[in-house]
Amino acid sequence: MSILVTGGAGYIGSHTVLCLLESGFDVIVLDNLVNSSQESILRVEKLTGKSVTFYIGDIADQVQLDVIFKDHAIDCVIHFAALKAVGESTKQPYLYYKNNVLGTLSLLEAMQKRKVFDFIFSSSATVYGEENEPPYIETQPLGNPTSPYGTTKLTVEKIMQEAAKAYSQMRMVSLRYFNPIGAHSSGEIGEDPTGPPNNLVPYLTQVAAGKRASLQVFGNDYSTKDGTCERDYLHVEDLAEGHVAALQWLKANRLFSGFETFNLGTGKPVSVSQIISHFEAVSGIKIAHEFVSRRDGDLATFWANCEKANKILKWQAKRSLENMLASAWEWQRKNPDGFSSK
């Protein structure tokens, strides 16, 4: 089977590409390299001993999409290509709607032209909004996300639902995942942010490496056990395996059509302060940090109920928090300047 992975050079995308190759799939990657590096794919090829067909381009480019779908017998699209920073989305909402929503529509239209019906979407727990109480479960009504980023994910899910109703052959899966952290066990691929990291763990590892003076913790007055935000952190390798599990499920259930959703997480909330203390224990390094005001768009706490993915996809997160943080630190140590280190 040939799989088109959009955004495949990015953090989650590259780990999923590696997992797909190890599972015997042929992979085509389309990435505009705005927030990623082609070096990640070169390293994936070296780790697996297998090749990836790579295109530099954008999902909004219908001409290039037509070429890709014409030149390859694509069986399924796994769609990661999106802007993903919650804070940035509150400052640049037009950019997020244009890229994440209109880009996805462009991709779906290209699929329809070439009669490609299997689609796996990189969604987010933010679609549950602030109305729902954790643990989030797929049967809860979708809420009102607290950021434009979350709203783009919710909008795409609604588009997928409507498309599945309108086109009976569509087989659409939305994977709602929580907070991926960590890096591949080899230390060769990991999270490589452009500029100051928007996410907690890469910022923390840069502080540990001496690249940044201190970690800012956004709020310590939330209604949580220690006042800091709580999230459901899962290892990026577990998350990558979740995408392959969804693909295998589609492959095994040819009679399925429509739209389906699955949470991917550990089901365990962990606070920012706990992440800091666990990282200090794993690395032996004291992390300088300070508490600052809350960040727009952040919820106090959320975590997943993953029973549906456990039962139907036969998937569960199995790597420990210590493993997540140790692998993130190993990636930082081996690659102090990310993919430009070597």
Report on the structure:
The chain is an alpha/beta fold and 342 residues long. The protein has a domain at 2-181 and 233-265: Rossmann fold, CATH 3.40.50. Helix content is 40%, strand content 17%. It has 11 helices and 13 strands. It has helices at residues 11-22, 39-48, 62-71, 86-91, 93-113, 148-166, 200-208, 236-252, 272-283, 307-313, 321-334, and strands spanning 2-6, 26-31, 53-56, 76-79, 118-124, 171-177, 179-181, 215-218, 230-231, 233-235, 258-264, 270-271, 289-292. The strands form 4 sheets. A 7-stranded parallel β-sheet has the order 3-2-1-4-5-6-11, with helices on both faces. The chain has a two-stranded parallel sheet with strand order 7-10. The relative contact order is 0.15. The model has no long low-confidence stretch (mean pLDDT 96).
